[in-house]
Amino acid sequence: MADSSFFEESKEQSIVKTTIVQKYFAAWARVMIGTLKRYQRTDRIAYMDLFAGPGRYEDGTHSTPMLILETAVADEELREKLVLIFNDRDPENCRRLEEMIASVPGIEGLKHPPVVVNDTIGPEIAERFQSMTFVPALFFVDPWGYKGLSLTLVNAVIKDWGCDCIFFFNYNRINMGLGNPFVKERMDDLFGADRADKLAVELATLDARGRELLIVEELSQALAQGVGGEPRYVLPFGFKSDSGQRTKHHLIFVSKHFRGYEIMKEIMAGESSAADQGVTSFEYSPADYRYPTLFNLTTPLDELQDRLISAFAGRALAMQEIYEEHSPGTPFTKQNYKDALVRLEEDDRVVADPPAEDRRIRAGKRTFADRVVVNFPPRN
């Protein structure tokens, strides 16, 4: 159940979270509708918020459900194709959300009126979802704590074609929960029993930063292990405390499709509050704006160049192939790869085809198109 105090005010972090979800929904919907037109697989797409809340914060700011709804009302194709399902365990939240929905100008233009459900998300719902076949759907799971969130639930909601999931990961509470026998079942649901047991042992020897890195890495690995060996793409985005010293929570994105991963990576990069050499932090920290010097002491683009030389030694690949093969699990965007390859070419560490002199100049530098082939030297 969502902590009702969460809706008392709209903090900066909540606005960034909502912005990420709203931007991805808009991009995802365009891709899905375009694909459906070409292949005529179905005439509907869906957005499902499993912990929707009342629709606004106490300061009056609209929360994620209302922003998604307003996006749908304003778009002709979404008005025809989008199915909206909002669930919340709290009957009062459901009542207030229904009132908010009814007040939206143009709501009557939706072919499929929004549905508000009053249900508790738990193992029974996850099992029910496993037995259902979904139209292309974006699932948003924001329980504030961790009750109801499980690997089984995430696996169930993304199993069908076109289905992606964004969920809220309360790092503070889960960090305290790992190793706590009173919530072991919850931790097992989220990480898997073996992984949760191993984590509880390893975390005891780590400092705060080490704990965070290990917890997020293990969660990402658990999510990336798709059913039947299918590829999974996982992206975490962190939110720091006002001081920038402590991680409060993460937004985690899971998809079976590289295109979805690529879109979300660009969105999360754009919402990050810090960047070194053009490589973004995939975090939002208010402190980044107050103390920028503290967050610009590394050289990640230089590191990427060395990684590429090592990873692709003796091979020849197009830029897009390099990006798709190497970028999962890294903070690097497509533009970072292009910038790194331009530098490698300028330093004569790789050979590009076509070469720099045959490529156009844009914004004062040579372009590096997706189809440009890069020849890497063999390993020494």
Topology:
Blueprint (H helix, E strand, L loop, with lengths): L11 H28 L5 E5 L14 H10 L2 H6 E6 L3 H12 L12 E3 L5 H8 L6 E5 L9 H7 L6 E6 L1 H7 L6 H8 L1 H11 L4 H17 L8 E8 L6 E9 L2 H14 L3 E2 L2 E2 L2 E2 L1 H5 L9 H12 L4 E3 H8 L7 H13 L4 E3 L7 E2 L2 E2 L6 E3 L5
Parallel strand pairs: 1-2, 1-4, 2-3, 4-5, 6-10
Antiparallel strand pairs: 5-7, 6-7, 8-9, 11-15, 12-15, 13-14
Please provide a written account of the structure.
This protein is an alpha/beta fold and 380 residues long. It folds into two domains: 4-294, 3-Layer(aba) Sandwich (Rossmann fold); 300-375, Arc Repressor Mutant, subunit A (Orthogonal Bundle). The chain is built from 15 helices and 15 strands. An eight-stranded mixed beta sheet has the order 3-2-1-4-5-7-6-10, sandwiched between helices. Strands 11-15-12 form a three-stranded antiparallel beta sheet. Strands 8-9 form a two-stranded antiparallel sheet. The longest helix has 28 residues, at 12-39.
